[in-house]
Amino acid sequence: MSTKAIGIDFGTNSIKIYKNEEGIILHQKNVIAVYNKTHTFAVGNEAYEMYEKAPANIAVTYPVKNGVIADIGNMQALIDYFFAELDGKKRFKGAEYYIAVPTDITEVEKRAYFDLISNTNLKPKRIHIVEKPIADALGMDLDITGTTGTLIVDIGANTTEVSILSLGGIVQSRLIPIGGNRFNEAIIAKVKRDRNFVIGEKTAEDIKTQIASAFENDDTIDVCGRNMVTGLPGEITVTGREVHEALIDLFQDIVDQIKVLLERTPPEISSDIYKHGVYLTGGSSRIGELGEFFYQQLLGLRVNLCNEPESSVVMGLGAVIENPGLARLSQ
Asked: pLDDT class for 60, splitting at 50, 70, 90?
C-alpha cells in the first residue's frame, strides 16, 4: 500500500498503534494523568505508574470503559500526545486510519471513535471502522472470508466479546460485562472479606497474573497492603485456592453466555464450530488453565489459544492495511 495507513486499537487497558510497513509502533497503557482538571501531566505507562498513588490535584483515569469512550476529552488529549511523541505530522498526516470497535455498541458510541481521529490536526485522508471480532480473527491468521463458521471469544479488560463469524461478517455477537478488571475486583473483595486486608488494583493484577488459575492450585504470593484490624501496613500470603474461589463464578458466567450464543447458532455453523473449536484471545485469556476449563465446560469443544492475545486486534488491523483484498472487511 503506497499511502500511509495507521491501525489503532483503543483497548480499555492499553492502546496499540500499527503503521503500514513498520508494524506495531506503540503499545502502552490507555491511561492519562490530568493536573488540576486541565493540563495533561502524563500518559500511557508513565501515567499508569501514578495510578492509586497520585495526590488529589492529579486525576489518573482510563478514558475507555466497557469497550466505549467514556471521556472523549481525555481520550483526545491522550491520542494527540502519542501522535506528537511519534512525530505525528511527518508519519501520520494525511494517512488512512483503521479503527477497531466492538460490535455490540450503539452507532453514537461508534461515531465517537470516528470523531476522535477526525478532530486531530493530522487531516486524515479517510477513516475506516473495523469490527473487533473481525480484527481478532485476522490477527490470529484465520480465514473468515469463506463459508466456514468461526467462534471467537475475546476476554478483555472490562468486557468479553463472544462472536460467530462467517463470510467476512458477524452472524451473532454478545458483549459480556466481565473482564480482567472484574477479576481484579473479585480478588480485592475476597482478600478483604476473608482476611480483613485491603490491597490495591495493581496488587490484585499481580496476583491474577502470577497465580490465578481456572483450577485450584498450591501456588502462593506475598503481597503488601493495609490490615483492616490494626489500620497499619502489613503483608500476607495469598494462595491459589483463594484466588480460584474468587474467580470461578466469573469464569462460569462467561461459559454460560457462550452456551446461550451457541444455542442460537444455525446448525451448519454449529457443525463448523464443532470441527474447528473455539478461538480464545484477549489479555485475560492468559489466566492459567482457562482453556482447559472452557474445554471441560463446553463438553469437549476444542479450545484454540492465541500466542499473542493482547495484540490480536491490532495485528488484524495490520492485515487489513497490508492486504488490499481484505479492504471490504472495513466500513
From this structure: very high
pLDDT for position 89 = 61
List % helix, strand, coil for the chain (3-state, nearest 5): 40, 30, 30
Q: Between β-strands 58-61 and 64-65, what pairing exists: parallel, antiparallel or unpaired?
A: unpaired
Phi-psi region of 218 (alpha: psi -120 to 50; beta: other; left: phi over 0): alpha
C-alpha cell belonging to residue 186 = 473479585
Residue 27 CA from chain centroid, whole number: 12
Total residue length of the chain: 331
Q: Does the global pTM surpass 0.70?
A: yes
Residue 208 has pLDDT above 70, yes or no: yes
The amino acid occupying position 192 is: K
Instruction: List the one residue out of 133, 128, 130, 113 whose CA is nearest residue 174.
Output: 133
* Mean pLDDT of all residues in 274-284: 94
Q: Which phi and psi angles does 279 have, rounded to 5°?
A: -105, 115
Confirm if 283 and 180 have CB atoms less than 8 A apart: yes
Work out the end-to-end distance of the chain between its first and last CA atoms, rounded to an integer number of angstroms: 18
CB 101 within 8 A of CB 154: no
Cell of 248: 470461578
Alpha helices, DSSP H only, in 86-131?
88-91, 107-118
Q: What percent of the chain has pLDDT over 70?
A: 99
Cβ–Cβ under 8 Å, residues 253 and 266? no
